[in-house]
């Protein structure tokens, strides 16, 4: 049809160039603009929308759709248009422009239109085609891009959030969510959208882009919409589905990495330390604990965090990585949060659990090696030497005694180490090795310590090197039996009636050497003896008198041990 018209046009133009050929037998068509892409041509029975200017041969205008501010809509080839226009529109593409010359017998003939078109008038039309559709048309969906992974697609009753650009078939824009800087949020399949959009969104993945061409009878039909969508207009939507969910959705879990050994799983009431990246379904990051270089620390199951995360962390193992997908009714709902989480947004958390504990947890003790014939074990007040490696439960090394020349030394029960480590060192034999898991309330607590994060569970590998039997709290020296009779006289070695520091030190050392008593274990026994002397030299004159020398049993009225 188009080729025949073009041949007819060329022959007529050639004749016109030679002179007036006389009356035209058919419509003269000049396709002076043809779009590069023509997806469809007008055929008999199609509905069309177009603009035109109508003039006579002398250029005088007799009609114009532009002047009326409204396009012309009609059906081609059913006699509703003048025959010349019916023929001249056939084969047109959207956005094509044509000059039509319609002879009188294909226009208004010998009668004309009273007061407007005289009899036997040749009519000149400048036409631009804006829209073509047919009552048998269906929705046209073209997938522009689609994510590699798509675990779920849109179904009826789902709530969707999407961006769109809306144009008429000729490319004229009429609306865009991007210009509002907000997604369009609605339910699918419940009548809240035009029928074509309801159908066009079905089966989409989050992150998918589609072009959806909607014929008028699935859009706004004969009435159009306001001033932006004319009657009988086909609509073209370029859609990006940002996210979707169903009001019946629960939390969706994807276990990305679960440690082979999982002795314990988190339950309600546990305190969890975890890192996370938080994204929307389109991949937009809204928050990350990594960016702050600090774990997120909280109780689970107690309402301190959004319900979806409360549920999503149940049953995690230490060291586990899991993805938690949370629908908005279990997150921040219709209002969203701040300027980074939109209303009705589905949230995706990629979580790495560092550790967790319960406030009632004791120290966990695993004996790795215990020597045979272990009869003597450590007690509070004993002086011990031990090696240790300290780390977080994710393997991060914190401290090690092996980094120093000598083992660690401490008197147990003297509040010199954290409570959990002290407990873990009790009842050990020399040479024994243990692994200790110390919860934070028996470690460094919520505040942490230098190099130790707040609320961190600590792992110690300890090896007891040696131990010395201690003395009761508050004592610096005890006798293994009764103290000597006439203690002051025996201590006054030169019998001058006073005991200076050197005599006091010589006497105590002799008692220890003879196995009659023992000092409080220490890496510096001289300091212990000096402290003992200072306690007895009550007036601090550098010597002890008989009146000053008193046993601790006399002072405390304790009969368990006798001690200076």
Automatic annotation (TrEMBL):
Gene Ontology MF: a single term: calcium ion binding
PROSITE patterns attached to this UniProt entry: EF_HAND_1 (PS00018), EF_HAND_2 (PS50222), FKBP_PPIASE (PS50059)
Localization terms from the record: Endoplasmic reticulum
Coiled-coil segments on the chain, per record: none
Region entry Disordered, spans: 534-564
Keywords from the named record: Calcium, Endoplasmic reticulum, Glycoprotein, Isomerase, Metal-binding, Repeat, Rotamase, Signal
Keyword ATP-binding: no
Residues in EF-hand domain copies: 485-514, 524-559
Alphabetical list of InterPro entries matching this protein: EF-hand-dom_pair (IPR011992), EF_Hand_1_Ca_BS (IPR018247), EF_hand_dom (IPR002048), FKBP-like_isomerase (IPR051989), PPIase_dom_sf (IPR046357), PPIase_FKBP_dom (IPR001179)
A single GO cellular-component term on record: endoplasmic reticulum
The enzyme's E.C. designation: 5.2.1.8
Domain of life: Eukaryota
Domain named PPIase FKBP-type: residues: 45-133, 157-245, 269-357, 381-468
Pfam families noted in UniProt: EF-hand_5, FKBP_C
Principal location: endoplasmic reticulum
Signal peptide: 1-17
Cited function: PPIases accelerate the folding of proteins during protein synthesis.
Protein name: peptidylprolyl isomerase
Naturally occurring in which organism (per UniProt): Anseranas semipalmata (Magpie goose)
Lineage summary: Eukaryota, Metazoa, Chordata, Craniata, Vertebrata
């Amino acid at each position: 049809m188009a080729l025949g018209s073009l041949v007819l046009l060329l022959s007529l133009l050639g004749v016109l160039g030679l002179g007036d050929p006389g009356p035209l037998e058919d419509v003269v068509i000049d396709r002076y603009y043809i779009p590069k892409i023509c997806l469809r041509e007008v055929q008999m029975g199609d509905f069309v929308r177009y603009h035109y200017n109508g003039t006579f041969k002398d250029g005088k205008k007799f009609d114009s759709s532009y002047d009326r501010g409204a396009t012309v809509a009609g059906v081609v080839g059913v006699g509703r248009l003048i025959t010349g226009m019916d023929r001249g529109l056939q084969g047109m593409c959207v956005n094509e422009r044509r000059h039509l010359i319609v002879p009188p017998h294909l226009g208004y003939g010998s009668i004309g239109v009273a007061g407007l078109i005289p009899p036997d008038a040749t009519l000149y039309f400048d036409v631009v085609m804006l829209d073509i559709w047919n009552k048998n048309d269906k929705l046209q969906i073209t997938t522009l891009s689609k994510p590699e992974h798509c675990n779920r697609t849109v179904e009826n009753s789902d709530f969707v959030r999407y961006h769109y650009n809306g144009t008429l078939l000729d490319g004229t824009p009429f609306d865009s969510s991007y210009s509002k800087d907000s997604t369009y949020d609605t339910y699918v399949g419940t009548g809240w959208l035009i029928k074509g959009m309801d159908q066009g969104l079905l089966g989409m993945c989050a992150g998918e882009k589609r072009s959806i061409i909607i014929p008028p009878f699935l859009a706004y039909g004969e009435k159009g919409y306001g001033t932006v969508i004319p009657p009988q207009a086909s609509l073209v939507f370029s859609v990006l589905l940002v996210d979707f969910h169903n009001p019946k959705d629960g939390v969706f879990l994807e276990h990305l990495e679960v440690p082979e050994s999982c002795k314990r799983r988190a339950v309600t009431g546990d305190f969890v330390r975890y890192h996370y990246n938080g994204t929307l379904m389109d991949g937009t990051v809204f928050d990350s604990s990594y960016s702050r270089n600090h774990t997120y620390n909280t109780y689970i199951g107690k309402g301190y965090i959004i319900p979806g995360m409360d549920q999503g962390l149940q049953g995690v193992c230490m060291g586990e990585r899991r993805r938690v997908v949370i629908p908005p009714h279990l997150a921040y709902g219709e209002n969203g949060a701040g300027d980074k989480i939109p209303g009705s947004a589905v949230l995706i958390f990629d979580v790495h659990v560092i550790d967790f504990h319960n406030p009632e947890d004791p120290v966990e003790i695993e004996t790795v090696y215990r020597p045979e014939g272990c009869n003597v074990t450590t007690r509070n007040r004993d002086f011990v030497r031990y090696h240790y490696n300290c780390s977080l439960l994710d393997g991060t090394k914190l401290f090690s005694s092996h980094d120093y020349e000598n083992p660690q030394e401490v008197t147990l029960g003297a509040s010199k180490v954290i409570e959990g480590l002290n407990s873990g060192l009790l009842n050990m034999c020399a040479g024994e090795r243990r692994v200790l898991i110390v919860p934070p309330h028996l470690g460094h607590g919520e505040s942490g310590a230098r190099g130790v994060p707040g609320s961190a569970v600590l792992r110690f590998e300890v090896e007891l090197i040696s131990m010395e039997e201690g003395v009761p709290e508050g004592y610096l020296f005890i006798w293994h039996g009764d103290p000597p009779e006439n203690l002051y006289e025996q201590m006054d070695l030169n019998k001058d009636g006073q005991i200076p520091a050197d005599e006091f030190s010589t006497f105590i050392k002799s008692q220890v050497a003879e196995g009659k008593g023992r000092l409080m274990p220490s890496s510096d026994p001289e300091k212990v003896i000096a402290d003992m002397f200072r306690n007895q030299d009550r007036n601090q004159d550098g010597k002890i008198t008989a009146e000053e020398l008193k046993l601790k049993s006399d002072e405390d009225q304790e009969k368990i041990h006798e001690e200076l």
